[in-house]
Amino acid sequence: MKTEVIKRHVGDSLKSLRRNGWMSVAAVSAVTVTLLLVGIFMAILFNGNRISHQVENDVQVRVYIDRNVNKTKKAALRKKLTKMKNVTKVSYRSKSTELNTIVSGYGSQWNMFKGDENPLNDVFIVETTSPDSTMAIAKKAQKLDNVSDASYGGKTARKLFTYIDGVRNWGFGFTVLLLLLAVFLISNTIRITILSRRDEIGVMRLVGATNSYIRWPFLLEGAWTGLLGSIVPMVFVDIAYHVVHGSMDISEASNGFSLYPVMPFLLWLDLLLAVVGIVIGAVGAVVSMRRFLKI
């Protein structure tokens, strides 16, 4: 396609947007609302998946040692745990360390249990080669001598994964409905443009204009509508993500989980929103032309 023809198509598409006035505004607004919700869902789902993988990889077995067990028996228990299949590391945490963790997380009122009043157990933290092996290791560890209990975060992790899967599925379905609504509104805008320019299209056909030459301005009009509708969502999502990411820095440092870094995450998210806007705009134009442009 020649440069002059491309310039003409771009100019015609922009003129058509201005000519349609409020219908163009309505279509752009529909895309804006749609992509705003889509952008929020994408940011939540992407980071939800990231955290779920972090939780999955952080699943450990906590082996609680019987009270009043001497150092020799603790060393023997540690050796048995280390020799278990799929165990990568065994670390020791005293009951005083466990209590200090509770105090730092839940408040100084737990200081009353320090010293001889400490009701907690010494613990071995067992790290495994994969999350799938934690259940089997927990069951084996529970049967060892001088072990009062063995637990792991598998149940909590599975609940989290189930919840995230549900949010992902519902979010995907809701997003599809929003995109279809935006396509419908854009197609109606393009249809009005086609109807208002029916005589002009007829003249173009009489002088030998090809089908693609007639279609291109409408495709570009739909793409412009989608691109313009993506600007506000990109700005809003970027600002909101900066605020949320900054407010979570402290909690991330304490629990070991983190959101995606602001950059390049927002760059890719903005690019994705722009592409989605252009695609649904172009699809809206195609739908309108197939139904109402008889050429």
Automatic annotation (TrEMBL):
Superkingdom of origin: Bacteria
Entry GO terms, CC: plasma membrane
ABC3 transporter permease C-terminal domain ranges (all copies): 174-292
Keyword list, A-Z: Cell cycle, Cell division, Cell membrane, Membrane, Transmembrane, Transmembrane helix
Keyword RNA-binding appears in the UniProt entry: no
Domain FtsX extracellular span(s) in chain numbering: 59-148
GO terms, biological process: cell division
Membrane topology: Multi-pass membrane protein
Location in or out of the cell: Cell membrane
Keyword Transferase: no
Residue intervals passing through the bilayer: 21-46, 170-190, 223-245, 265-287
Function text: Part of the ABC transporter FtsEX involved in asymmetric cellular division facilitating the initiation of sporulation.
Recorded family membership: Belongs to the ABC-4 integral membrane protein family. FtsX subfamily.
Protein name: Cell division protein FtsX
